[in-house]
Amino acid sequence: DVKVTQSSRYLVKRTGEKVFLECVQDMDHENMFWYRQDPGLGLRLIYFSYDVKMKEKGDIPEGYSVSREKKERFSLILESASTNQTSMYLCASSYGRTRLTYEQYFGPGTRLTVT
Amino acid sequence: QKEVEQDPGPLSVPEGAIVSLNCTYSNSAFQYFMWYRQYSRKGPELLMYTYSSGNKEDGRFTAQVDKSSKYISLFIRDSQPSDSATYLCAMSAHDKGYSSASKIIFGSGTRLSIRP
Q: Distance between alpha carbon A23 and the CA centroid of its chain, in Å?
């Protein structure tokens, strides 16, 4: 059974703080993703990674960076948190280049509030 | 215009009713069509997928794709309170590997409530 875990379910941070969100998957998936989910806007892709140390920007990368030092772990970093980054953050993973990639496995999400 | 449009609801129906959830899209390159279900305080999980046009049935769920109209539907028969969730349609243009061309585009989700 695929498991994607996220480091926190709820997080409250102050404006200007550096925030780390961690994601770990246990299925040896090549691809990992970070999304944010906002009412009426759905899931928007922030960054994704298709291999260790590889990353590509998604649709809304501004204000975020990522790190993938190990295959199972993908971190999202908010360098200087702002109130407009208050959102639900979802991590996902999927099989890589040689397999169908339509199925993504999601973690439970981290609800981040920036005050 | 968004690439994928989905009515956010909420949609409330009595138990046992047939539910119809829909999405429209603008990108004719989409080939893979998915429905994800998201329960409250959980991440989305894949419910069904369809390749190209046609119907696919899985138990009480039927996914339908009409590429000529750029319209997809999910039907739920004999709806149950446990079906109460947010349903997200999702689409992808590519089937192998992951690149900007193959990324999955999600709809904003329809919140569904089944009344006992």
A: 7
